[in-house]
Design goal:
The chain has 312 residues and is an alpha/beta fold. It has two domains: 164 residues, Rossmann fold, CATH 3.40.50.300; 102 residues, no CATH class. Helices cover 42% and strands 18% of the residues. It contains 13 helices and nine strands. A five-stranded parallel sheet has the order 2-5-8-1-9, with helices on both faces. The protein has a two-stranded antiparallel ribbon with strand order 3-4. Strands 6-7 form a two-stranded antiparallel ribbon. Helix 9 runs parallel beside helix 11, helix 10 runs antiparallel to helix 13 and helix 12 packs across helix 13.
Amino acid sequence: MGDDFAAVAEAAPIMVEREQPGFVQTPYITDVIKRALMYIRAGFPVHFRGPAGTGKTTLALYVAAQLGRPTILIHGDEEFGTSDLVGGEYGYRMKKTVDNFIHSVLKAEEDVKRIWVDNRVTVACRYGFTLLYDEFTRSRPEANNVLLSVLGEGILDLPAGRDEDNHLRVHPDFSAIFTSNPEEYAGIHKAQDALRDRMITINLGHYDRETEIAITRAKSGVSQQDAERIVNIVRGLRETGDYEFTPTVRTCIAIAKVLNISGGRPEVGDETFTHVCLDVLGSEADVSSLTKGDGKGNSNEIVLKLIAKHCR
């Protein structure tokens, strides 16, 4: 039991509470969760794919919590190799025996053994945990190849030289959830077709207006009316297409949180609100519009017009 516990501790599983008071559920979100759980219970890994700020990781953690098993969380990394997922030999264990039973004879024996430590994928497969691989396409495809047999045949191939078998039968309670950004994002690798073929992909876009308002309120504490105005402005900028980085619900939350602690209100003439919108939304501006002396081009004009339109 001691060795088993050490392996689990090394991989740092987490237990996410099923009931999360701060988690917002609207018809859109409820539908996504229902579909994801349906696929997982049918034996398929689920892949949430969408642009930054669409709540992929939050949704994945919530879905993992509903499965009622400890969760192993991995964040994709360019530097990952197979050993970072499966495990490897770390350090040595040395045993030395000295026999001096006959005083005139000294017998010494040494045994040096490499120590194998299971890493996160192996621990999840062995104990039937939920594997949540966040932004898995940030890892190189060759590092993720080990998942092919796990998701396809339910077998984890392990390196030779271990004391145990070189194949591990995946625990029947094992499940996997993946998230990724679009391939055009910087630092993203194209996933192998064979790996993508083994999972069911749920494409996530920006939330509907009702969901963005509900999330903004829940995460900031502003009123319904204030949340509506903030969301309308952010969505208005998004619809213009005049930005470099897409304004998301995170942008709404940032503006709302600052207003909540500063006492500002989303009203025309409120200087705090105006400055916050210009600072937060101006940073999303299309670089092609950065032509005026203030360094923000016509993005300021767009934001000011949106404030005038939605905060009367």
